[in-house]
Amino acid sequence: MKCTVSFLPVLISLVSTEHTTLPHYTFYKSFPSALEECAEYYEVPTSSVDRIVQESYPSEPEVKQLIRCALINVRCWNDTTGVQEQVMNSFFNPTPEDSEYLVRTRECMQRSEELSGGNSDVQTRAYDAFICYYRQYGTLNETDQYLPFTEEELYSLILSVLSIAHVSQEALAQFSDGNVLNNEEFPAVLYIHYVRVGFYQDGLVPEHLYVQFGNPELLTPRTEQCVSAAVNSLPCEADDQEQLYSIFRKCLVDLTSTLELVQKASRQLLGLGSSSGSSGSSTNAPCTSTCPPTINQAPYYNTIPR
Q: What is the pTM of this model?
């Protein structure tokens, strides 16, 4: 049983009994795979995709179409809100000595917005947001990355978890009134949901929570210390569900929209509709606005081939 907590750069791993590695309802995808899938949708031959990559994604109509599709495919882009920064970041690797990558990228996007006035078409906006990252943030990460759920998907998953957990009508009524955290049936709902969507995999995975909810506080030393203290406050015989509930109650309540989603889903199951102020936070909240990048900002990464 668990008595200690070990910390990794992007994974808080609770020492645990072994569990079979199962996919549950988690999804991972690489940018090259997303691009290849989009090429198939638009019937773009593999030779053309190879050329596009070799030429560092030139500014062409076909390339812009593919890039926008690929970014939507990996949940990095929304035509209304623009780039989803916490998701996009995971697909690029800055060098260790580069401390200005995020500042440069945001400045690139800001200058682009000022130059265009926000009048570019969605394909150009998505393409130019990608190019800002490609030239200013870091090298393209070609490995599979955890993909966030849309707000609608996360809500639907909460509905199914309430059913899987066989939550009583009494508990649903309490949940619908906003009395979620202290209800004795909530820990099971929380555990099933967090395991199912990949927030808890033999331990809390704060990187996945960050990609989903976009709250940078999830990755801070303060949260790491809070998680450690929450686990260490429990007896060694505490199981995974007890440990996750302790972590959530003490460290995560205000950093995610989990309680709001449970309340909203419970109200629907009881036929009460949505309550005011409890629709839940957007799971892909925008972090920056995006428009075409200024052409006179020198590339830091992936310089244009000559």
A: 0.82
